């Protein structure tokens, strides 16, 4: 059965393509906007120590766990979390717990694609110098809010946000419709090198070619780097620094989304996942620490001084990326080209992540309902377009903030905790350890088994509990909003609407999983049967293979 | 830049770039080993050598 037809398992074309796609999944806007902001706000050197400890005890172990869950599910032809969880835990509840692995990537895909469309728009606005002349933070913030249709409407018509969202979504769905090798892998092989080249050029320009500016009080880019890495170890006694660092590691590696697992499901037990997981993590860290830490904050320090850069960092990642950086570019020779590179790299960072979010949905409908990839992809695009309009129109009312918190923050932590317990405890540590080492090109020292079995789950539990108490409960009870402001009578209906929409997606997911299990007559207690890599993956598909595919 | 900031900066970059270099050099070494080994049929290296006909 050829690739691309219903039921057949796709495969990665090359190892470097796999690593680039996995790294693309991990590398996102957060590498270039969230990381420098977190480092700037959390005592520099203390943050970096806590960050690297979290990378070793939380990030890389979770990366291995997710690759392991994915490849294990792939043995049974399951590229989606309900199936993968059912393969690990032979219990009727497993597939319903796995609905998180469909709902979270779908919800995040919807609003992430909208944010990604801003980066595409700004590449266009940069190369055409559309925002030239707006040389203050306030002017560029106004330009951004106008584009987002929450500010002055005389700068941008509302149609622009919609147009770029539509174009960005179209590109995403077109890539996804081409499949793993011809779509996602090809995008990664083109986009990731471009991203790294653009980022390296910008880092060199910021470090060596921007003279001190009046607004920065004579500060240089190296002063900005020194600010990020200031050796203030007093932060190590602060729980918030450790939690901020662990949170950054968590988000930067894109764990807890269900996407790495789907990518890994297209591997066989003869393919390595341990070394590939380290290579993926290391590539992400290069993008984050080496490149991401060398562009936005150092540039902000040159133009606004350390105090000004700290205030900008405190005001949010979007202000840093979409207001501060354009102010910087307007002061530089070939600034429109540099702006094109900045937003271009953010676009590639975004799209390599967003295409990953679509893959668990595709895998589910292909494998369980025998639908063709193209049909699912374009159907998903239509759904994302309709639900994405809720963010286009209700951004100011906190709709996106609400989805970003419950799915993109709380949901990820909850999902990561569940999957770690399932893989390392329910599936049993010895089975997990053996599974990870199948086809491996490196042998992990035994200490890593101890870390993954005990340290990583406890670290996650502490992180999850802290966020639950500190943020989730106040947000849920509307003491505060996900965006940090006080709820108002005007916003509350939208906040409630955002929550109900997410709940509806979860309920729909559970219904579809139940339908799939009944349709394919799966026995939760008996488990699945291992399939050959290119064999039909479900009883329905075996039937199709015998009698021919319906349209 | 203070000595402490320089140490943190260079230490961070050294760790990250060192890990990346080590990882990819091991990937290249293992690719060569797999290409030479008959035991790894059906893995990705084998598929890279013989593209699927479908």
Percent helix range of chain B:
over 70%
The termini of chain A sit apart by 16 Å
**How many helical elements of chain A?**
23
Question: How much is the average pLDDT of chain A?
Answer: 89
Strand coverage percent of chain A: under 5%
- Class by helix and strand content of chain B? mainly alpha
Tags for this entry?
heterodimer; A: 551 residues; mainly alpha; Amino acid/polyamine transporter I; 23 helices; 0% strand; disordered N terminus; disordered C terminus; B: 54 residues; 2 helices
Structure summary:
With 551 residues, chain A is an all-alpha fold. Chain A contains 23 helices and no strands. The longest helix of chain A is centred in the middle third of the chain and has 35 residues, at 335-369.
How would you summarize the topology of this molecule?
The complex is a heterodimer of chains A (551) and B (54).
Chain A: H1 15-26, H2 29-32, H3 34-41, H4 45-74, H5 81-88, H6 92-97, H7 100-127, H8 137-147, H9 158-177, H10 179-208, H11 221-228, H12 239-252, H13 259-264, H14 274-291, H15 296-315, H16 317-330, H17 335-369, H18 373-394, H19 399-426, H20 429-437, H21 447-476, H22 492-519, H23 539-547
Chain B: H1 3-36, H2 44-49
Q: How is this structure best described in words?
A:
- The complex is a heterodimer of chains A (551) and B (54).
- Chain A has one domain: Up-down Bundle (Amino acid/polyamine transporter I).
- The relative contact order of chain A is 0.19.
- Chain A is mainly α.
- Chain A is 72% helix and 0% strand.
- Chain A has 23 helices and no strands.
- Chain B is an all-alpha fold.
- Chain B is 74% helix and 0% strand.
- Chain B has helices at residues 3-36, 44-49.
- Chain B is rod-shaped and about 55 Å long.
- The model of chain B is unreliable at 49-54 (pLDDT under 50).
- Chains A and B meet through helix 1, helix 4, helix 11 and helix 14 of A and helix 1 and helix 2 of B.
């Amino acid at each position: 059965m050829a690739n691309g037809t219903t039921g057949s398992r796709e495969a990665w074309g090359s190892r470097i393509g796999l690593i680039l796609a996995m790294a693309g999944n991990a590398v996102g806007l957060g590498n270039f906007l969230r990381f420098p902001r977190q480092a700037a706000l959390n005592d520099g050197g203390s943050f970096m120590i806590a960050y690297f400890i979290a990378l070793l005890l939380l990030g890389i172990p979770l990366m291995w766990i997710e690759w392991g869950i994915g490849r294990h599910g792939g043995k049974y032809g399951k590229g989606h979390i309900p199936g993968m969880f059912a393969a690990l835990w032979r219990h009727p509840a497993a597939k319903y717990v796995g609905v998180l692995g469909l709902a979270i990537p779908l919800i995040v895909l919807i609003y992430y694609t909208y944010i990604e469309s801003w980066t595409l728009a700004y590449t266009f606005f940069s190369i055409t110098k559309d925002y030239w002349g707006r040389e203050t933070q306030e002017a560029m913030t106004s330009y951004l809010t106008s584009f987002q249709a929450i500010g002055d409407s005389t700068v941008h018509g509302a149609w622009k946000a919609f147009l770029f969202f539509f174009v960005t979504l179209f590109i995403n769905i077109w890539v996804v419709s081409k499949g793993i090798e011809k779509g996602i892998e090809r995008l990664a092989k083109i986009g990731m090198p471009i991203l790294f080249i653009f980022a390296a050029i910008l880092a060199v320009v910021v470090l060596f070619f921007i003279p001190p500016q009046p607004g920065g009080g004579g500060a240089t880019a190296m002063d900005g780097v020194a600010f990020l890495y200031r050796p203030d170890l007093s932060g190590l006694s602060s729980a918030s620094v450790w939690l901020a660092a662990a949170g950054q590691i968590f988000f930067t590696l894109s764990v807890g989304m269900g996407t790495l697992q789907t990518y890994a499901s297209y591997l066989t037990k003869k393919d390595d996942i341990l070394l590939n997981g380290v290579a993926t993590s290391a590539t992400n860290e290069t993008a984050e620490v080496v490149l991401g830490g060398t562009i936005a904050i150092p540039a902000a320090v040159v133009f606004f001084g350390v105090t000004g850069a700290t205030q900008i960092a405190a005001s949010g990642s979007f202000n840093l990326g979409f207001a501060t950086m354009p102010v910087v570019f307007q002061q530089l020779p070939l600034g429109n080209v540099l702006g094109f590179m900045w937003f271009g790299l953010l676009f590639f960072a975004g799209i390599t992540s967003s295409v990953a979010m679509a893959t668990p949905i595709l895998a589910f409908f292909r494998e369980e309902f025998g639908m063709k990839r193209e049909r699912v992809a374009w159907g998903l695009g239509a759904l994302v377009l309709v639900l994405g309009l809720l963010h286009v129109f209700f951004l100011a009312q906190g709709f996106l903030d609400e989805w970003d918190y419950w799915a993109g923050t709380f949901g990820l932590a909850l999902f990561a905790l569940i999957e770690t317990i399932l893989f390392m405890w329910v599936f049993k540590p010895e089975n997990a350890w053996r599974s990870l080492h199948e086809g491996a090109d490196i042998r992990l020292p035994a200490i890593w088994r101890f870390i993954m079995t005990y340290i990583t789950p406890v670290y996650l539990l502490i992180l999850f509990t802290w966020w639950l108490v500190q943020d989730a409960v106040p947000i849920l009870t509307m003491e505060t909003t996900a965006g940090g402001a006080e709820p108002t009578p005007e916003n509350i209906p939208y906040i409630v609407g955002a929550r109900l929409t997410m709940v509806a997606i979860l309920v729909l997911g559970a219904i579809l999983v139940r339908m799939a299990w009944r349709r394919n007559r799966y026995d939760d207690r008996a488990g699945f049967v291992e399939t050959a890599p290119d064999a039909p993956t479900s009883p329905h598909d075996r039937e199709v293979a015998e009698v021919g595919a319906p349209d | 830049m203070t000595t402490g900031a320089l140490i943190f900066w260079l230490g961070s970059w050294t760790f990250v770039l060192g890990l990346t270099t080590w990882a990819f050099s091991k990937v290249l070494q293992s690719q060569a080993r797999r290409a030479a080994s008959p035991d790894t049929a059906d893995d990705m290296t084998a598929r890279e050598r013989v593209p699927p006909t479908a």
